[in-house]
Amino acid sequence: MASLWLKLISISLIYLNVIAKSTPHQESEFECVSIDKQSALQHPLMKNHRIQTRPSRELLSILSTSNGNILREIDLKGSEECPKGQVPIHKQKTNLTNSLIHPQQIHRAGRILKQSRRDKKKKKNNRRKKNKNKLMIPSALLSQKNKIPHHQPKLFTETHLHYAIVRTFENTTKKWRGAQALFNINKPRVVQNQFSKAWIWLNYIQGSLMSSIQFGWAVHTNLYSDDRPRLTTFWMSDQHPKGCYNALCPGGYVQIHKSIYPGLVYDKVNALGGKQNTVHLSVAEDPVTKNWVLTIGSIMIGYWPRQSQMVDGASEVYFGGFAGNTASSQPTTSPPMGTGEFPTKDLSRSCFMKQLKYVLSDYSVVDINANEVEQYVDSRKCYGVMFLKYVDYDSRETLTFGGPGGQC
């Protein structure tokens, strides 16, 4: 009997040793720092900044206009909390800037600075001609099957970056104070030096200067240590024109929540045709503090201080997908976007954003106006976009997008 017990103990020890080897200890992906010592507040502009720890009543009123199904559908949770007075800051692999993967500031600002007056006049005349060829989204269904002209002007010149979006018209004089949507969570298959995002852009452009707040979920192998979808943000401003992800740079994003933070993994992802795991994300200017606040449902996660971000509001808004390669020195295969399939009416098989809304200049929240946006897909053989006008009460204005990628 004693020998039997010894054998059982030996087998158990071997089993435990195998488990220990197959599940190595995972180092925490964030560090807790004092809320007033985080990088964002270590900037001269933030010297007298008063930290906002909760949304104002006016901002809560804005958030309450969203549909009632949002809160129960949140699938993003922080597994650990920082102690009182501290906040979690994600330990990113590197501080990537827009010069690598956010080229719009270079294309629309850097090149403008280098233009001569003659070049500006020539480009202005060419733009007038091209604007006649832009396709406006009608108040009905749009998809990659709609005959988008092949001569549609490109938003960006970089061949390693791809977009499938709807956007507000460039020539509008309107200003927006925020945007929001209900995202479903997907895990497109990417390899090293690739990224794929479901994304909202709030941009302010004045002459050669651009400020931007961007948010959503991203699979990003250069930014994170794996290929899991994560809550991700990006910002740029006049004081920080190269931009910065998440919470690492002075003068930028201020973290407030004790357990939910940019960089946190979405644990539940969708299976094609299965249950759709969703999260409602919003960035809106607080009417009282004028800070740009990031929320999940009505939960405040953090904000971008008014001292450095879009005092006059956003002049354009984009919703959709963004995918590409961070290494652009040689031709590469472009990654999948969304579910990896082209968008369809079947939302259980498509990457989507539902309940697309703007916050207007008077802080009222409205569904996006299908007559004030246009679609843009730079590579139709690799990606597509489909806009569904008012699907139902829960979905409302809905956008689906994605594609397999490939040689784009």
TrEMBL record:
Keyword rRNA-binding set for record: no
- Where does the record locate the signal sequence feature? 1-20
Cross-referenced InterPro entries: Glutamic_endopeptidase, Neprosin, Neprosin_propep
Q: Where is this region: Disordered?
A: 110-135
**Sequence ranges of Basic residues compositional bias:** 110-133
Q: Which Gene3D superfamilies match?
A: Outer-capsid protein sigma 3, large lobe (3.90.1320.10)
- For whether the record's keyword set contains Nucleotide-binding, the answer is no
Record domain Neprosin PEP catalytic: where: 156-408
* Keywords, sorted A to Z: Signal
Q: By what name is this protein known?
A: Neprosin PEP catalytic domain-containing protein
| Organism, scientific name | Arabidopsis thaliana (Mouse-ear cress)
